[in-house]
Amino acid sequence: MNLLLLEEQDFIAPERVRLSGRRLQHMLQVHQVQLGTSLRVGQVDGLMGEGRVLELSDTKAELEVCLSEPPPSKLPLTLLLAMPRPKMFRRILQHCASLGVADIVLLNSYRVEKSFWQTPFLQPEVIRENLLLGLEQARDTVLPQVRIEKRFKPFVEDRLPALLGDSLGLVAHPGNYPACPRAVERPVTLAIGPEGGWIPYEVDKLKDAGLQPVQLGERILRVETAVTALIARLS
Amino acid sequence: MNLLLLEEQDFIAPERVRLSGRRLQHMLQVHQVQLGTSLRVGQVDGLMGEGRVLELSDTKAELEVCLSEPPPSKLPLTLLLAMPRPKMFRRILQHCASLGVADIVLLNSYRVEKSFWQTPFLQPEVIRENLLLGLEQARDTVLPQVRIEKRFKPFVEDRLPALLGDSLGLVAHPGNYPACPRAVERPVTLAIGPEGGWIPYEVDKLKDAGLQPVQLGERILRVETAVTALIARLS
């Protein structure tokens, strides 16, 4: 981790935190901290700065922290993502958090296997944990919002147009469509389908809601690769 | 897999192949092929086309194949990659093959842990297997070339300048450098460091060999995410 993320409950005084568990082990084993070591720290959904180790044992560390810098800006990007295969889902959450995606909507689609919705990785604390891993990596503090929409049609018909607002709406889909634009300077709402892609009905509904189909070339990418490639291209 | 890749030894006649093992299981379980089913096929390092199932049992399938289409073009990209952590290495090989990278050089770096070079994933048949997974995904047949350079200095001093040739040489490195260019139309040689980045000596040596440092913004990405993001941005 490139940033030690602090939770509200870690604070034992306004500028002092007490840590144990995973973060303590990481500090000891990877950063090999000692008394007096300085580390980059940030408060979840808050400011970033420096922390200095004041007390240290095998079971806990106490740090004095000074938080004054804002986290990096988020990308003005809302990602509508057909619920991926669970193993890939965790990594996609980490990629999205590290790339700076602000909002993620997990959407059903005809080709999403029903079992994907049963994964324990959809539990809020597991989603949060994976997003935090991405934030720690990228040196960001602000958790992306994740919403779950298990019914495609009511979401796309009733809620997507308002969510889209003035943003540029795109749906990534292989076919005879314009190439995905690059370095877009306005907010973007981007829909990425499941393995095997959206079915034509879904592309039509997304078009009706205001999204334009775009493609990334003749190569068919795994969802995980496509998510990072599309975000990098748009941003 | 979006393309059934055929090896030379699968051919039992000029237009007939016999398959068993992983590819047969995939055909049966995922594609649920039957007698007469048509599939997209391609010959490793050769042409792509259609295959039709003529015989089928639990232990083998025979297909009549017609190969006439060229595979998609490769990106004119040589990737110099500090040897990644083994688990990530396998996925990076798959990402690179599916994105169309032509050449990969696995390079040592100060921050590459020595144990990474001991991984069984570096065995030629395991490298090949992971590249094939990426090609099957993307519908490509041409294996990227993978070279292993365990000594940084002799490679960078003696062989990199010739490898670079007329291509645009870039080294991805966080810092006060120009932003990584987009949609570059000429061949590119791109160096991507290990977790923790290149050390300053290595950046200097890569610069001496003709590579320009470029950065991707203030977010620090995992190597796996950075590889895909940089390739997507350049191509």
Topology:
Two copies of one chain form a homodimer.
Chain A: E1 4-6, E2 11-13, E3 16-19, H1 21-29, E4 38-43, E5 48-56, E6 61-69, E7 75-82, H2 86-99, E8 101-107, H3 124-138, E9 145-149, H4 152-164, E10 168-172, E11 188-192, H5 200-208, E12 212-214, H6 223-234
Parallel strand pairs in A: 1-4, 7-8, 7-11, 8-9, 10-11, 10-12
Antiparallel strand pairs in A: 2-3, 3-6, 4-5, 5-6
Helix pairs in contact in A: 2-3, 2-6, 4-5
CATH domain topology of the largest domain in chain A = Alpha/beta knot
Number of DSSP E strands of chain A:
12
CATH class of the largest domain in chain A: Alpha Beta
Number of helices of chain A: 6
Describe this structure as you would to a colleague:
The structure is a homodimer of 235-residue chains. Chain A is of the alpha/beta class and 235 residues long. Chain A has two domains: 4-69, Hypothetical PUA domain-like, domain 1 (Ribosomal Protein L25, Chain P, Beta Barrel), CATH 2.40.240; 75-234, 3-Layer(aba) Sandwich (Alpha/beta knot), CATH 3.40.1280. Chain A is built from six helices and twelve strands. Chain A has helices at residues 21-29, 86-99, 124-138, 152-164, 200-208, 223-234, and strands at residues 4-6, 11-13, 16-19, 38-43, 48-56, 61-69, 75-82, 101-107, 145-149, 168-172, 188-192, 212-214. In chain A, strands 1-4-5-6-3-2 form a six-stranded mixed beta sheet. In chain A, helix 2 (86-99) packs across helix 3 and helix 2 runs parallel beside helix 6. Chain A is elongated, with a radius of gyration of 20 Å. Chain A starts with a strand and ends with a helix. Chain A binds chain B through residues 2, 72, 94-95, 98-100, 137-140, 182-183, 217-222, 225, 228-233, and chain B through 2, 72, 94-95, 98-100, 137-140, 182-183, 217-222, 225, 228-233.
